[in-house]
């Protein structure tokens, strides 16, 4: 219902104007009811069994014990609930959890455990009987490594230090239910407090207020006062140290990694300060990053107060820290204003890529930001081409239909890159100052709330496009959001630095020597552009010359190395096998795995070679990555 937000805004104004008659308490009650009605009326979530019109969770008290020997997490989750309609049942999402008992505060007896078996990837529906008087429900359960896809227990040899085990979680999109009984929808937010017991030699961290050093008991306490959705409920346990980087920034990592991580991320405080000047105060207190072992399936995960990051962004020259800017930007777009469902994920990612680009422009200059934008455009073109080849052209829309599908299917490059260029088009059309004012007000107006595509379009119409009828005609937001492909009015971005790369590549292609390429001042985006533009059918001599000159195969920059592998593997570059196998076994980041395994499939004996490597590498991968690679390689 695209007029819901306007109705609510008018209702709020009316309530304020009548404040002397109604009283503050009644106004607050009506405001809460309006917010709840907004939740009911605006959307439904295909990927959760909750019934938000009836009963929802509001606060979580969580106590857990981590057992690395058994690779289990034993916990009790106690929720404060809001029984909106006075119903007799509240519904939660669970998947592969061993539930021992269920209780509620207004009953002395253990409740019957009723689990309704549902769809495999969605898990099951946990039905808990309640009354109108019920204030809290409590679930005692165990999650284990085999069934909980969100959890990855690592043996010491899989860590940087090789001495202690490690555990981390990855809950996005709907994996929180594999380690926490919850209403696993991005539209349901709750505050939480937690107590986690771990081996004394390790430290526990969560997406909450965190310790900065180990204690002697192995028992850690956490609070998260701001409401968060379940996919941002996160835990990491390992041999960790902390190093402050500024007034409210810092980094956690294993002892052997902490100094290199601190150097790589030393601009992080500048990023936070820059982001605040653009779009308003940082609402989460501190912004820390934890560098995880290389099996982490993503570049980063924007868990509040503690971004989870892959070590593959530590290049030694700060050249890959755009990822930190991206995860920081999520503190506004995503964490602060959250997509109501996974079909609206572009509202998180498109805004965030745009915001990331603005942060990088402020810190490193417009030339650098333009190079990142052009790489984004190249990725977008490739993604559209691939989706079309897979008969998934409908997934090139920003607002994608995911009913009956795993929401992970929607996490393509489309919401990121197509979303970014829509934001860029809006900026260019209305002017940067007008656009920044709109975004700043948007984040402030809807902080700690959820947003749907339709509600955003209502707000966009009312607060921005209505000021000038030509703006909507120029932008055509509905075409961008609801139609396939890339509209013709996509912004055109140029880069003099990329043009210089192209000139050098032309010289080499026309018979020049690789050693004559003027590349001493090139930064990572330029190298990526160079590799991306290399002819797809290089000879052995050409590949050897480039590799001998620039050391791509042994590069310490994972982005450059992965791009090189993707380019030369299909050409059967001799002597590459060991390097590719080592990389695929060590690194579990899905962004790299998918294109490299695809490249292997194009090479001679590709399928057997890919499967042989995968057999060795798969145990090191998080379930998020292994599930995708299983499908790609037909692994059973």
What features would you describe in this structure?
- This protein is of the alpha+beta class and 636 residues long.
- The chain folds into four domains: 4-42; 48-148 and 180-232, Immunoglobulin-like, CATH 2.60.40.1730; 337-482, Neutral Protease, domain 2; 498-633, Serine Threonine Protein Phosphatase 5, Tetratricopeptide repeat, CATH 1.25.40.
- The protein contains 21 helices and 20 strands.
- The strands form five sheets. The chain has a six-stranded mixed β-sheet with strand order 4-7-2-1-10-12, with no helix packed on it. A five-stranded mixed β-sheet has the order 14-15-16-18-17, covered by helices on one side. Strands 8-9-13-11 form a four-stranded antiparallel β-sheet, with no helix packed on it.
- Strand 14 (241-246) and strand 15 form a beta hairpin.
- Helix 8 packs across helix 9 (414-430) and helix 14 (496-509) packs across helix 15.
- Mean pLDDT is 92; it is low at 1-41.
């Amino acid at each position: 219902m695209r007029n819901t937000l306007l109705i609510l805004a008018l209702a709020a104004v009316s309530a304020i104007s009548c404040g002397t008659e109604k009283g503050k308490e009644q106004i607050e009650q009506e405001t809460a009811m309006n917010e709840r009605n907004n939740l009911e009326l605006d959307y439904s979530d295909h990927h959760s069994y909750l019934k938000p019109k009836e009963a929802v969770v509001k606060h979580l008290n969580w106590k857990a014990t981590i057992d690395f020997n058994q690779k289990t997490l034993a916990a009790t989750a106690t929720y404060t609930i809001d029984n909106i309609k006075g119903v007799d049942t509240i519904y939660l999402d669970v998947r592969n959890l061993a539930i021992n008992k269920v209780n509620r505060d207004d009953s002395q007896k253990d409740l019957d455990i009723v689990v309704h078996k549902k769809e495999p990837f969605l898990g099951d529906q946990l039905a808990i009987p309640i009354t109108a008087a019920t204030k809290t429900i409590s679930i005692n359960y165990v999650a284990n490594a085999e069934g909980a896809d969100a959890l990855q227990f690592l043996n010491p040899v899989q860590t940087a230090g090789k001495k202690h085990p490690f555990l981390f979680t990855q809950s996005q999109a709907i994996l929180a239910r594999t380690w926490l009984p919850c209403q696993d929808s991005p539209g349901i937010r709750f505050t939480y407090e937690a107590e986690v017991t771990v081996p004394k030699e390790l430290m526990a961290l969560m997406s909450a207020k965190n310790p900065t050093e180990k204690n002697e008991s192995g028992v850690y306490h956490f609070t998260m006062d701001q409401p968060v959705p379940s996919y941002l409920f996160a835990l990491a346990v390992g041999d960790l140290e902390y190093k402050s980087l500024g007034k409210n920034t810092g980094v956690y990592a294993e002892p052997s990694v902490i100094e290199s991580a601190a150097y790589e991320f030393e601009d992080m405080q500048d990023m936070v300060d820059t982001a605040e000047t653009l779009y308003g105060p940082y609402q989460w207190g501190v912004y820390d990053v934890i560098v995880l072992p290389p099996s982490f399936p993503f570049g980063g995960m924007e868990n509040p107060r503690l971004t989870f990051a892959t070590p593959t962004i530590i290049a030694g020259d700060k050249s890959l820290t755009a990822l930190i800017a991206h995860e920081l930007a999520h503190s506004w777009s995503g964490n602060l204003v959250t997509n109501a469902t996974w079909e609206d994920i572009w509202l998180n990612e498109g805004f965030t890529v745009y915001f990331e680009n603005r942060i990088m422009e402020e810190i490193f200059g417009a030339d650098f930001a333009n190079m990142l934008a052009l790489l984004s455009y190249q990725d977008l073109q490739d993604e559209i081409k691939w989706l079309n080849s897979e008969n998934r052209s409908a997934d090139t829309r920003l607002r994608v239909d995911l009913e009956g599908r795993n929401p992970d299917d929607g996490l393509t490059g489309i919401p990121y890159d197509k979303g970014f260029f829509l934001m860029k088009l809006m900026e260019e059309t209305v002017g940067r100052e007008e656009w920044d004012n709109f975004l700043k007000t948007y984040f402030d107006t809807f902080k700690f709330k959820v947003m749907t595509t339709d509600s955003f379009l209502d707000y966009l119409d009312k607060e921005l496009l209505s000021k000038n009828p030509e703006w909507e005609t120029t932008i055509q937001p509905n075409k961008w959001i609801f139609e396939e492909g890339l509209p013709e009015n996509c912004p055109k971005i140029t880069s003099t630095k990329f043009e210089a790369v192209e000139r050098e590549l032309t010289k080499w292609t026309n018979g020049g020597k690789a050693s004559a390429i003027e590349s001493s001042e090139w930064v990572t985006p330029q190298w990526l552009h160079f590799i991306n533009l290399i002819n797809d059918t290089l000879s052995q001599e050409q590949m050897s010359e480039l590799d001998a000159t620039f050391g791509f195969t042994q590069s310490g920059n994972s982005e450059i190395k992965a791009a090189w592998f993707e380019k030369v593997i299909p050409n059967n570059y001799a002597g590459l096998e060991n390097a590719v196998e080592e990389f695929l076994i060590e690194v579990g980041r899905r962004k790299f795995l998918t294109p490299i395994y695809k490249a292997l499939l194009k090479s001679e004996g590709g399928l057997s070679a890919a499967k042989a490597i995968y057999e060795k590498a798969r145990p090191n991968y998080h379930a998020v990555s292994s599930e995708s690679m299983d499908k790609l390689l037909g692994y059973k």
